[in-house]
Amino acid sequence: xxxxxxxxxxxTTNLAEIAATSGAKIPSYDRSQITPGIVHFGVGGFHxxxxxxxxxxLMNGGKALDWGIVGMGVMPSDVRMRDALAGQDHLYTLTTxxxxxxxxxxxxGSIIDYVFAPENPQAAVDTLADPAIRVVSLTVTEGGxxxxxxxxxxxxxxxxxxxxxxxLKTGNTxxxxxxxxxxxxxxxxxxxxxxxxFTIMSCDNIQGNGELAEKFFHAFANSISAELGDWMQQKVxxxxxxxxxxxxxxxxxxxxxVKETGYVDxxxxxxxxxxxxxxxxxxxxxxxxxxxxxxxxxxxVEPYELMKLRLLNASHQGLCYFGHLAGHHxxxxxxxxxxxRDFLLxxxxxxxxxxxxxxxxxxxxxxxxxxxxxxxxxAVKDTVPRLCAESSDRIPKWLLxxxxxxxxxxxxxxLSAAIVASWARYAEGIxxxxxxxxxxxxxxxxxxxxxxxxREDILAFIRDRDIFGDLVDSEQFTxxxxxxxxxxxxxxxxxTLDALLARVTV
Length: 506
What we know:
One of its GO terms (molecular function) is mannitol-1-phosphate 5-dehydrogenase activity. The protein is α/β, with parallel strands linked by helices and 506 residues long. The protein is built from 23 helices and 13 strands. The chain has helices at 2-5, 15-22, 45-49, 51-60, 78-86, 121-129, 159-169, 179-193, 209-224, 226-235, 252-260, 302-325, 331-335, 338-352, 364-375, 384-388, 391-398, 400-408, 414-426, 444-451, 465-468, 475-491, 493-504; strands at 8-9, 36-41, 68-73, 92-97, 103-108, 111-116, 135-138, 199-202, 241-244, 263-264, 269-272, 276-280, 296-298. The longest helix is centred in the middle third of the chain and has 24 residues, at 302-325. The chain is globular and about 65 Å long.
C-alpha cells in the first residue's frame, strides 16, 4: 500500500530499490562509465524499444560502454521527450508483451543525454562534431526525408531546407532547423578539423533506407557546394538496415501499469516480444558489436527488407482501413475476425511473396503465419488509427511497388488494388457506422478532397499522379480497384472481403 501511495521516481539513485520492489530488471553496468558514441535523431517509442535496447544488451554484457546514445530533437514536439528523459536520468522502462500474456519489464540505460537543437543549434553541431561520435542514426519516419511527392527527389524548395542551405553557404550554424542542416554542419566541422566523419545510419521503414539517405544528403551537400558533395560521397558511409518490432504509442494506461509496480516513469515503452534488425556492415569509423546482441549483420539487406516491407508493413495497411471502416479500434480485434486473417494471408501468399528475392534459410510460410499471430497479440494493445496514419507516405513505399512489379510480369494485383480501394474509402472520412474518421496524414486535406469525389468518379482518388503515378492507366489495376470500392460503398468491408476471397481462391 505504501508503494502505491508513494511510488518511487525512476532515476539512477532509486534503481536498486525499484528492482527490489517492482521486479523490473535494471542495468547491470555502471552508467557513469558510459561515454557517447552515437547521436540519434527521432527518439520515440520505436528507437527506445529497438536500437537502444540492442545497445543496452551489449552494455549488460560489459561491452560497448563507449557507444552511449545522445538523443537529438529538431521538432518543437521533441521537447517533451527531452524533458521526460532528463527528469529521470535518461532511463526508461521497456515492457515487452508476449501473445500468451508473459511480460518482461526492464529499465534501459543506453541513452545518456538529449540535446534539443532549437534551443542551441551551435551546441547541437558541436555535439555532432565531437570525435567521440562515430554513428548518427535516424528514425524520423517515412515523411521525414524531405521527399518531393511529385518527383520523388529531394525537395530543395522546402523553406526550412532552403534556409539551412543558405545559412551553411555562409558558414552560419545559428538557427539551423533540420536534421539535414545539423548533420551536414557537423560533417563540415569535422572536415575542417580533420576528424574522421561519422556513419549516417537510417533505421526507417523505407526500402533502401541507407541508399535514400545517401542520395538526399548528397543532394543537400551539393546544393551548398560541389566540393562538399564530392567529399561526402567519398568519405561518409550510409548502411542499409531492416528493422522490425511492433511498438504502439505510449498511453496513460502504460504509465499506470508501470506505476502499479511501484515507480513512476514519465514515458515508458511497450512493445511485442518479437524483434529483428538486419544491418549492412558498412561503417566509416567502427560500430558496436551488434551481432553479439542478436543483430543480423550482413552484406546485402535488400532481400530481408523486401520481406518485411511487403509482408509486414503492407499487410498492416491491408488490415487497418478495412478494419477502421468496420468499426474496430484495436488491431487484435481486427485479427480476431477470420475475414481479415484469410485476406491478409491471401495477399501475402498470392501477391507479395512472388515479388520477394531469394532468402536462403527463411521459411516464408512460417514467417507469414508468425505475422498473423503477432498482429493478433492482444497484450500489445496496438491501435488501428496508428496504422492508418501517414498513408500517403506508406502506401507508395510499401504496397505500390508490389503492384507495379506484379503488373510488369503479369502477376495478380486484385488484393493489392483492394487495399488501395480501402484507403480511398477510408479517406472519405466516415466509417460504415456513420462515425467521422480523423485522417492523420501530411496530405490529409488533399487525400480527403480526392476521396470526396469517389462516388461521382470511381477513379477520382487514384487520378493523383503525384501519389499513384500511372496506375490509373492500368486496366488490370483499375478494374480490380473499382470493383472493390463499389462493393465497399454498397456492401461494406466484411462482405467485400468475402467476395474478394471467393474470387481469388476459386
